[in-house]
Amino acid sequence: MKTNMLESKYRLLVLIDQTKSSYTALRNAVNLAKVIDAGIEVFYVKPPMQVVRYDNQIAVMRTLEEERIASKKAMRKLVDTISDIENIPIIYSFTFGNVITEIQNHITKTQPDVVVIGKRKPKMVNFLGDGLTSYLLKNHKGEILISGSDKNLTSYHDVSLGFLDDTSLNNEVEIVQDLKKRTHKPFKLFKIKKTGSQLKKPITFSKPEEQSSVANTVIFEFEEGMDDSNSVSKYIEKNKLGLLCVKRETKQKLSKSIGLNDKAQQTINKTNVPVLVLANKK
Q1: CA dist., res. 178 & res. 199, Å (int)
Q2: d(Cα 13, Cα 94) in Å, to the nearest integer?
Q3: 281 domain residue, yes or no
């Protein structure tokens, strides 16, 4: 029986924009919700300038109303279909306006546990420099799930969890703790070691439980500056991770204004698996 949104333990806010990546984000959110007992809200903001092409005010109002009706109808069909098939509570809302402003207002009003966004294909610049993604990483203090590619759609049942450093592995974020309890697979810890020489390949500890404060953990240790052919992202793909958890930096340690260090940014950009950016508690 489908549970009510208010009865769910977590609330996921999925931001869509009618792109393939945003629909992949919704599918990932559904898979996650089924494991951690979450309800889902889908939110779509459309800039009026994408719709309005007339100078006449009456024509403008008519066009906006027609677009509003059409967009809500399409969203309702999508959401209701997924909700019925997956037996997951999903609500939706749509508005015209400035994308970042409306999203921030909606987050402030609804206080979701996780904001879910699609990962756009990288162009000439770092995708984390994208307006919305960058804004959320700078300003949203809660968890952000950046969906992977549609070819790496994750099932979170017995998921293979990866962590980019000891801090993310040992965190106390409740959703991560719930996922840890629901998997029998060893955790994967990727560490960057600062030394003067470079390894040709990462060290894999044969008895990882002795090298970490968390049992059942396989540790891959990389030399700082290791060649890209042996980068962290390569080993994330090789080990078939289902989810990579990444911490935010404190303000004192930030090398970039979006709240992630250089290595975290590079890894997120290069990997195709979903990435959970952990809440900044400070």
Answers
A1: 35
A2: 13
A3: no
pLDDT (tens digit per residue) in 95-144: 888 889 999 999 999 999 999 998 876 554 444 545 888 888 888 888 99
CATH number of residue 118's parent domain: 3.40.50.620
Calpha distance 8→77 (Å, rounded): 23
Residue 116 lies in a domain: yes
CA atoms of 72 and 77, how far apart (whole Å): 9
Assess if residue 280 is contained within a domain: no
C-alpha dihedral sign at 259, 263, 266, 272: negative
Question: Whats the size of the chain, residue-wise?
Answer: 282
Helices (H) and strands (E) in the chain, counts: 8, 11
- Integer Rg of the chain from CA: 20
> In terms of DSSP bridges, do strands 90-96 and 143-146 run parallel, antiparallel, or are they unpaired?
unpaired
The pLDDT of residue 114: 95
Tokens of 31: 């898979």
Range of the domain at 251: 161-275
pTM comes to 0.83
Amino acid identity of residue 99, one-letter, is V
